[in-house]
Request: fold
Amino acid sequence: MIYSSFSLNPRFTKYLVKNEILKDNPLVVVDVGARGGLEYHWTNYGNVARFIGFEPDSQECKMLNDSLSPESNSHFYPVALYKDKGSYTFYHQAPAASGLYPADPKLVSRFPDEVSLKTRKTSIVNTVDFDSFVKDYKIPDVDFIKLDAEGAELDILRGAVKQLKKTVLGISCEIFFSPWRGEGRGFSEIEQFLRPFGFRLYDLNLYRHANKSFPGIDSTSPSPSGVAPYGQIIMGQAIFFRDAVAEIENKKLLQSDWDEIRILKAASLFEVFRLPDCAIELIDTAFRSNIISNSGKINMEKFRDLITSGFLGRTITYKKHLQKLSNIKKRGYLNNFDRIKPYLKRIPYLTKIRSFIKKQIAYRRNNYTS
Reply:
């Protein structure tokens, strides 16, 4: 599932990259279900990010590794992550839909997507939990995890508890609102599992699926499609982050503590995922708590301005943006007509119409009232 709400110009993040502020502590991103390659927004981090991908399809995994530049420190592993080490049945459906859980045939038979979700064959795969993999392969502390594992997302998270407690700042997770892959692995179960570790829901992309009675048309395919602007909400992509401000103020939850680099990474992720308010709030809190101080390339006002101008798409400072909002508030929240009324009076043509309407109203009052 593709998450689509990203900043087109994350200026704060680009500033961190350009000035090599994260050079000695690169952002570590884990991509579980990496078919098709990394999502485009990660290119904003250039060479100050390390990507670790997992894709059970060995041929796809080889293609992904071959696409990396020779100097890259990223790598894709042909490994099936799960809740533990073991051997499990793998259900081969359409390549992007294959996984450790079969689709519910009775449920999906009502949707055009049935053709992609039919099990064509099964095989046995060896699985490993993420915490064990991190230990065995000496993977550095993880900052962000993206999950697209066709119903196995909750199980993979259960196998990553040590990392979730220690360093993970955010998670992008495919979620289901309908039991396409069986009961007990939906959005509500994932949200409840993550909550005790300090993760909160920050954003949600929803995907609707029209059933066979009135299917949608996929612009990329001549055949009927379940994905449509109408229909039942079946799945989505959920964005979870730690409430960093609350954790800093309460001094709890994150085992590795909130230092300058971790805060800058979290603020950068907030910016990339179009959460400028959260990014600025975190930076303000960090400076106020003396975790970060103005020094050299670290400057609170500059950070605020970069986040503001990047989000609004024009050169404007944070203070000027707040001043504009303040001016609007002072005027009061007028309706649209009240706002344009002063300008209408300046337009001769509209003034004539206004005068004509007034005369007509006066005429009717004088001639049609007793």
Remarks:
- Residues 348-368 form the longest helix (21 residues).
- The mean pLDDT is 90.
